[in-house]
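User: Good morning. I'm curious how cytidine-5'-monophosphate would be positioned relative to this chain. Could you predict the structure with it bound?
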Amino acid sequence: MGKDVIIACDFPSADETMAFLDKFGDRRPFVKIGMELYYAEGPAMVRTLKERGHKIFLDLKLHDIPNTVKKAMNVLMKLDVDMCNVHAGGTIKMMEAGLEGLTREDGSRPLLIAVTQLTSTTQERMKEDLLINEDMEKVVSHYALNTKKAGLDGVVCSPLESPAVHTLCGEEFLTVTPGVRFADDSKGDQARVTTPAQARELGSDYIVVGRSITSAAAPLEAYERCIREFVD
Ligand code: C5P
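Assistant: Good morning! Here's the predicted structure, ligand included:
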């Protein structure tokens, strides 16, 4: 699959989402539906955007006992999204169960990726709050390797971690990277950020961009700037 920009549609309702996407005219960007929008509007939102012709990354970050994740993934499989995810922190066994639940009878399935450490987590918080003393890069690499062992397609990580993940897990192993800002934007609550151009240089396969597009005065222009910097 080629490089692409995924817009994080972090909106509280279908109305706001559609009003936002209407600004894109005939363009049908790859979109991410996260917890906020999915919990507000449910599977109907996924169906609406699929029918409109968007590719969908359903970002629900499942993290539970393996059996529960398997059953939940089996439900998500029927929604026919293009990409969904789990937390690698749920263990290899949980990721394997998720993959099994997501796989259709004919063996096809959406892409399944795992979150390593959230891009909002700093080294200090990981140490103090999670009692993980290793370096961020080592933790992310270890979780990425677990993800690969479980048979998933890639990880969500910071663009800064893409090179190490690709070296360890191979170039085909996908890095889907949020924490992307234009040089002139504020970081918000993200800790490990790069620009779209830097993400490209670092080898990210997909960038996930939220507020730099959704809060822009001209969202279509901001999206096109991302495409220019990251894809073209
Ligand atoms: O607005 P912003 O560009 O920071 O949005 C980033 C999006 O990526 C959010 O929807 C957030 O939930 C998601 N995400 C993240 N870090 C991860 C996984 C997902 O920021 N590790």
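The chain has a mean pLDDT of 95. Residues 8, 10, 34, 59, 115, 118-119, 156, 178-179, 188, 190, 208-212 surround cytidine-5'-monophosphate (CB under 6 Å).
Let me know if you'd like a different ligand tried.
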